[in-house]
Every structure is written in structure tokens, then in C-alpha cells.
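Morning!

This is the sequence you dropped in the shared folder:
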Amino acid sequence: MNMDSIDVLDLFLLFLFCSITSAIAIRVATYLVGIFRIVDRPGDGHKLHEANTPFVGGIGLLTVLLFTLLAFDPVEAETSSKWIVLGICATVLFVTGFIDDTIRLSYKFRFIVQGGVALVMVMNGDMIVHSLGHLFSGEFLQLPHWIAAVFTVIALIGGINAINMIDGMDGLSGSISLASLALMGVVAFQAGDQDNLLLICALSGGLSGFLYYNLRYASKRSARVFLGDNGSMLVGLVLCWLLIDLSQGPTPAMTPITATWLFAIPLLDTVSVMLRRMFLGKSPFMPDHLHLHHLFLKSGFFVTEIIVLIVILHVFFGLIGLLGLYFSVGENWMLLGFVLMFSSYLYLTLHPWRFISMVRFLRILLRTRLGRAPVASNGVFFGFFTANETEKMARIVNEELGANSNFSIRVFEQLSARRNFGKHFAITLNIWLAKDDYLSEDKLNQRISLLQLSLEEKQGILLRRLRARNRDSDLRDYSNGSPFGESRQVDRRSLGPQAVTFEVTMLGKNNNPFRTQQANDSNSYIERGKYSTHCSSCRV
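The structure's back. C-alpha cells below.
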């Protein structure tokens, strides 16, 4: 099919077709891998989901990508050979990722394959970063060929793994990738680059079909499909391909520094987290729970809220890049802005609990003042406090525990059948424990007792420990846990069952009109399946 006369309607129809095709391909793949039990199973410490989940998101993306490459003739004749290289490289990475998802390959082997794919793209696909633009005092920076080749290979490997590293929460990597594609679509449309615009629309449709299964919303509380290494590496490859192709060549559609702004969140998060690990004397490839989405999670946000916040932040950075491009802001100034942003981000990474401490209390203020706190089921949470009382308790607990403690504070609105009560809230405290804190039950109880005494004697705050019951015997109805429809059910890749959970109350205050005989039980209910206070089930 020739694209000389392609218009917006054609692009929309392609997007719609690829969305449906991707969704169908993923559905079929889900059925097939279910038969052979090729799924992502819970366990292994870092996998915190509770159910076997297929990692077939990449199948839908590969299907629409190969369809587009085979069904359309590029406008530029030299693009045909580049598309062949892209199709081969994407297939190789998909197969490698699928094998890795199934039998767990060594990261060294994955790097070898990624390096080989990058070399093929450089040598045969003409995907090479020759120019860095006018970054320093207006001087055009052109890299020698061998330096450009090495730089491109490193950049490609980093970009491929960046999407994989942020794939730590349902819907996150897919949503960020879709946002990046939308921003690049603006660039390609303005430049009249029909070939890349075609790829962008096709992959955007593929991601939309995948997100139908991966995102959470009111009627779907957990992901039914994961992207997997097969999908994350494929998406990373295509994003890098587009960024290079749009920013290089004799008439580039954008500057190289603009490309970094359009890929801001994956780039910032990956580089800063790896640097932090090296500063601490750890392997940069050692997984941890200090990515940006983990920081928001530990601040008390729900999964859907985190997705919305990070995507908004990513789009904001991308718009800065586009505004700088189209308003002819100096590339050196755009570089300076990016360096300052990266420095701030790195500081947060090196001092995560300062950021968490600030954000968690700000969130409490916004939820109580704006009335956006999720609703708690009566009998599950027992506090019944005004907004001022809730904010006071949150501030005291936040200050007492300090910025270096790993905890989150959550506020829930308490519904009342009596209108004259007005808005009242319950507050819970979740403290995530270090490994040394739960070596024994005695040590755990000692730590809890000291914390309870400290807050009671110094601040007049009571911490009532909540214990989890068996989920299978818990028949209570749990409401949605956020204004976006987020459930308080266990998160696939949440912080895991390593927290001690408390009800926060004021000394001598017992004004809850909902308190029942069942609520007075010492084994009170908490968020279903999310937390455990028994040491034998604790893990980092």
C-alpha cells in the first residue's frame, strides 16, 4: 500500500485496526500459554503478584509491527531496507525476551543479544547518532564515526532496558510508552515524516490493545496480562529507533536534546537508580524498590493514581522539549534545563525518604481538604476524626518517625448515615520493616512496643496494631480504594507483605459511632491480603 496520500483519517483507521488486532492476538496468546502453563508465577521475592499471569503483551505489539512493515510501502525508498532490519531486530529481541520470561536467562546473555541487535541497527539499518546538535555555545557537535557507533550501541542498550526497568507496576510502562509515542507523533506530523508517523500510529494501537488487559479500572482490579521482557524490550527498541531516526540525518525533525526530553522519565529513572546502587556499593543491575513508582507507593498513593501522576509528569517534560523545539530555545539552554532536572531527580534517588516524608503529608492535606479520600468500609477502619484532627495526627506521626523511616500514612473517609456528622476520616499507619527488624517475633514485638510507647507518652497518639485474617474466610465487602476506582486489593508488584499496620487514634478519644463487637476484636481486619504482621511471612 502506498502512503503518498495518507491523511489523518487513514492514520486513525490504522490505529483502530492495530488496537483490535493487538487485543485479539494477546487474547489468543493468553489461551495458548495457559494450556502450556507458560505464565509468570508468584514468588521469587521480587514477584509479588498472587496469581499466575501470562506475559504475552509483546505478542500483540510484534503482530502489529510486522503487519505494518509488510503491508505498507515506505514513502522513502531507502527506508525499505531499514524496515527489514527493524523487523528482524524486533523479532530477535521478542524471542529472547520470551525465553527469558520462561526460563530466566542471565543478564549477561541478554546484554550480548541486545548489543548484537544494536550493532546490526548501526551497521545495516543506518541507525547511528552522528550529531548531538548545538549543545555547547552554539557549536555543532559532530561525533567521529567510531565514537558515534559506540555511543549509539550504548544508548540503544540503555533505552531497551529503560522500559524494562520501569515495568514495575500494572499499566506503567505501557502508558509511558504510549505518551512518548504521542509526543513523537506530533514531531513526525509537523515534519511531514509519513514513514515514522505510520510506525507511531501502529505501535500506539498495539499498546492500546495491550493496555486494555494491563491497566486497572473499576471493573478490573488487577492486570490480566503482563508486558514481560519480550514486550518491554521490543517497545524499548522501537522507541529508540524512532528517537534516533527523527533526530538524525540531513533534515532531522527534532534536535537530539528534544529526544531526551521526550524519553525523560525512563531515562531519568533508569540512570539515577543505577547510579544510586553504585554509590551504595551494589550492582547496578540488582533490583530494589526505590524507583519513582515505588516512592509514590510508599507515600500512600494507589496504583492507578501513581500511573496518572507519572504519565502527567512524563507528558509535562515532553511538552517542555516540544516548546523548546518549536520556539527555538537554544539547545544549550535545553541541555542545562535537563541537567538541572536530572540532578534534582538524582538527589531524590539518593535521599528517597525525604521526598516520601514530604509527599505523604501533602497527600493527607489534599485528601482531607479536597474530600478525595477513598471510602473505608464501616467496621474495617475505626477512626472517626475531623479533617483538622486527621491532619494533626498525620503531621505528628510523620515528624516522630522521621524522613528515614519506611512507612506510609493513608486516610479513608468514613461514611455516616447521619448527615449532621459531616466529613470524618480514619487514618492508618503502615511501617515497612528492615530485615533485621523481624528476625524474631520477640524482636518485632519489642520494636512495636517501643514505638507505641514513644508516640503515646510524647505526643498523645495511640497506635492500635491491626492483624490480617485469612482472605478465604473474610467475606466482608470492600469498597474501591481511590477516586480513580482503585481497589485496595493486593498489588502485583507492590511493596509486598512486610508491613506492620496500625490504626492511629488520639489518646482518650473514642467517638466512633460505627464501632461493633466484631470491630473490638484484637484481630481486626485490614486491607485484604496486602499486609501481614507475622514474621514468618515477612520479606523484603
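Headline: Residues 354-537 form one domain.

More detail when I'm at my desk.
O.
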